[in-house]
Automatic annotation (TrEMBL), chain A:
Signal peptide: none
Keyword field: Amino-acid transport, Cell membrane, Membrane, Transmembrane, Transmembrane helix, Transport
Subcellular compartments: Cell membrane
InterPro entries xref list: ABC_transp_permease, BCAA_transport_permease
Pfam families (alphabetical): BPD_transp_2
Organism, scientific name: Paracoccus aurantius
Topological relation to the membrane, as annotated: Multi-pass membrane protein
Superkingdom, taxonomy of origin: Bacteria
Protein name in the entry: Branched-chain amino acid ABC transporter permease
Record-stated family: Belongs to the binding-protein-dependent transport system permease family. LivHM subfamily.
Segments traversing the membrane: 12-31, 36-56, 76-101, 108-128, 174-194, 215-239, 259-280, 287-312
From TrEMBL, chain B:
Record organism: Paracoccus aurantius
Lipid bilayer topology: Multi-pass membrane protein
Transmembrane segments: 27-44, 50-69, 76-95, 101-123, 130-148, 236-259, 271-296, 316-335
Keywords: Cell membrane, Membrane, Transmembrane, Transmembrane helix
Major subcellular site: membrane
Highest rank taxon of the organism: Bacteria
The protein, known as: Branched-chain amino acid ABC transporter permease
Subcellular location: Cell membrane
Pfam hit, one: BPD_transp_2
Length: 326, 358
């Protein structure tokens, strides 16, 4: 029974790992194509989820600001938008955001050191967080796009019949795993078999060489940030459905960072394997060691694991080997 | 007239290499110090102390600390909040364990404790660098805050999980505790800020500072020309953490009086101090002060204008503040990566040549 319970914890950890991997994917995409380590990925997920809820509920953007400045009393437009259409609109907003980021930020920072770009994305994260709150309000929002939620009865009865112990697994987690698998398949297909995907890989490999064979860097960057925005939207939907759309959602970015360090910044499989290891590791650690040290070890376990791991393999599990020359 | 070097002759290398080579600048600095020490303590009221000057001085110390690590030694750290917490909890344990020892010594000792912890978390920097390290320092942030929340020994088994600064006096003056006057708070922080800034300035322009900068500019090349990366990086972590620890100790004992680890020393503190040095100027002591002043004053300014003058709701003002700070970070990184310190230096250059452009 002890063993079965531990394996339930393990499976739940794997499911959580999939959710981390979803966020980490967005990081990897942008890092691969532009060498930018995008700290704002988590806030992008929050922003996407907020926009989605805002559109679905027909909220007036900037209502809070308009009310304060012009003394108006607007809150909703009085209609609701079906989920599928709202997701499409939100995706368009994320494309707009990608274009704005390219035009206003990245274009001016070409050729800067990676760490400067990293700090710029921290600034971007704060800006987007403020913008999201001003646009849609800072209240905790409920997001429901029709994904099934709650404990899966099928899994419970089946495992109960087979093992004599019912596994509690959230249906949303199962769906998230399926969607994540589809998303990864789509991304890999896109980057391997389409012209744009090939151009993207060329840019990732060498900016200068890509430019010289006539690939538009600007277009590729906008495209990559749009895709990252879309991945953020998917992650935002999953996490938003699970825990409500609120500020803490942007903190999942912080959870995705150790996942990346473990898997390597440049590898899509790395993001997934890293996510699974971290998700599994932290749940098991909390289960076995947590009670001995007062619990809440999930806050730091991922980081310490990644830190210790990095000391032995600085580029992560699947990362490219770092070669330095003077 | 202003900032002229004409007639201001240097006859030794020592004179030529001083921090303020221009006479007017030097007198300006002395005048500023004189006003800060001799005038301000007598006219300060508790609003100015608590809202502006005391947080400014405390954050300036933290910013100098992070600037040593990030601006001079090139090791980006996101663990500042955690190290400030180490300083705060160390000073708390020392204050309650040895009530007879003067508080100034406790604050310095707390800095020492933080230096040791900082070196420990700086060890991975020998293998990993860049944003791998930045993310690794987050481990320090989360682990330390968790530790102070979970281990009751650190907060003396108090029921609320908070730490409260008991009253400590220095020659009959209350330095910590609820009875502390505004000028006592201000003077304590001022003494530390001025003293530590002086130490930092002289460390960074000496041998050790040169080593840090060599490591920052290119660590492998620095190693080849004979800089030991182990000592250079660990000393940067140690000195930086010492400063950050002192600032954390002051923040808790003198300014806040009570603190709770995850609230007072969360991840946002780390970012706040990082933003101070980006806006102020990486690799500049003056920049640390400028950045701290800017980010301490901005919320006060916005609150006065948006909330008090225009009557907007407080939460809206807070969100707009986030947007402004984020936007400014990007703006500064694009337009002036060396921050306010560089703008100030440019102004001085212009003034020296004025009215002739070349």
């Amino acid at each position: 029974m002890e063993f079965l319970y531990a394996s339930e914890v393990l499976i739940n950890g794997l499911m959580a790992g999939v959710m981390y991997a979803l966020v980490a994917l967005g990081f990897v995409l942008i890092y691969k194509a532009s060498g930018v380590f995008n700290y704002a990925q988590g806030v992008m997920a929050l922003f996407a989820a907020m926009t989605l809820v805002g559109i679905m509920e027909g909220r007036v953007p900037f209502a809070h600001l308009l009310n304060a400045v012009f003394g108006m009393h607007v809150s909703t437009l009085g209609w609701t938008v079906p989920a599928a259409f709202a997701i499409l609109l939100t995706a368009l907003v994320m494309v707009g955001l990608a274009i704005a980021i390219e035009k206003l930020v990245l274009k001016h920072l070409v050729g800067q050191e990676p760490i400067i770009l990293f700090m710029a994305t921290i600034g971007l994260a704060w800006f987007l967080e403020g913008l999201g709150d001003v646009m849609w309000g800072a209240d905790v929002k409920v997001l429901d796009v029709g994904l099934p939620q709650g404990i899966s009865d099928t899994v419970e009865t089946v495992t109960n019949d087979l093992l004599g112990y019912g596994f509690f697994i959230d249906r949303l987690d199962i769906w998230a795993s399926v969607i994540a698998a589809l998303l990864v398949a789509a991304l890999v297909g896109f980057s391997q078999y389409t012209k744009q995907g090939r151009a993207m890989r060329a840019v990732a490999d060498d900016h200068q060489a890509a430019l010289s064979v006539g690939i538009s860097l600007q277009f590729i960057w906008i495209m990559v940030w749009s895709i990252a925005g879309f991945v953020a939207l998917v992650a935002g939907i999953m996490w938003g459905t699970k825990a409500g759309v609120q500020f803490s959602l942007s903190l999942i970015a912080l959870k995705a960072l150790p996942v990346l360090m473990l898997g390597g910044f440049t590898s899509i499989p790395g993001a997934i394997v890293g996510g699974l290891i971290i998700g599994m590791g932290e749940k098991l650690f909390e289960y076995f060691v947590g009670p001995l040290v007062g619990g809440a070890t999930e806050n730091w376990f991922a980081y310490v694991l990644a830190l210790i791991f990095l000391v032995f393999r600085p580029q992560g599990l699947f990362g490219e080997r770092i070669i330095e020359r003077v | 007239m202003f900032y002229r070097e004409a007639g201001d002759f240097k006859t030794s290398y020592r004179d030529d290499g001083q921090t303020f080579p221009i006479r007017l600048d030097r007198w300006g600095y002395y005048a500023l110090l004189a006003v800060a020490f001799l005038v301000v303590p007598f006219v300060i009221d508790s609003y100015w102390a608590n809202a502006v000057l005391v947080p400014f001085l405390i954050y300036a110390i933290a910013a100098i600390g992070l600037n040593i690590l990030t601006g001079y030694a090139g090791q980006v750290s996101l663990g500042t909040g955690g190290f400030m917490a180490v300083g705060a909890y160390a000073v708390y344990k020392l204050m309650t364990a040895f009530p007879g020892v003067p508080i100034f010594i406790h604050i310095l000792l707390a800095g020492g404790v933080t230096a040791i912890v900082g070196m420990l978390f700086g060890l991975p920097s020998l293998r990993i660098k860049g944003f791998y390290l930045a993310v690794a320092t987050l481990a320090a942030q989360f682990f330390l805050v968790w530790l102070f929340n979970k281990v009751p020994w650190f907060y003396n088994y108090s029921a609320s999980g908070q730490i409260n600064a008991p009253e400590r006096t220095f020659f009959g003056w209350a330095i910590t505790g609820p009875a502390t006057s505004a000028s006592a708070k201000y003077l304590t922080c001022l003494v530390f800020a001025v003293g530590l800034a002086w130490v930092a300035r002289n460390l960074t322009r000496g041998t050790i500072g040169r080593k840090w900068m060599a490591i920052r500019d290119m660590d492998i090349a620095a190693e080849i020309i004979g800089v030991n990366p182990l000592t250079a990086k660990l000393s940067a972590f140690a000195v930086s953490s010492f400063f950050v620890g002192v600032s954390g100790a002051l923040l808790f004992s003198v300014y806040l009086g009570a603190a709770e680890a995850s609230e007072a020393f969360g991840i946002n503190k780390s970012f706040l101090v990082l933003f101070m040095i980006i806006i102020g100027g990486l690799g500049s002591i003056f920049g640390s002060f400028a950045g701290a002043a800017f980010l301490v004053l901005l919320p006060v300014f916005l609150k006065n204008v948006l909330v008090a003058r225009l009557g907007w709701p407080t939460d809206l003002a807070a969100h707009i503040e986030l947007m402004i700070v984020g936007g400014l970070i990007i703006f500064f990184l694009i337009v002036e990566p060396h921050g306010l310190a560089r703008l100030w230096a440019l102004t001085k250059e212009k003034l020296r040549l004025w009215p002739f452009p070349h």
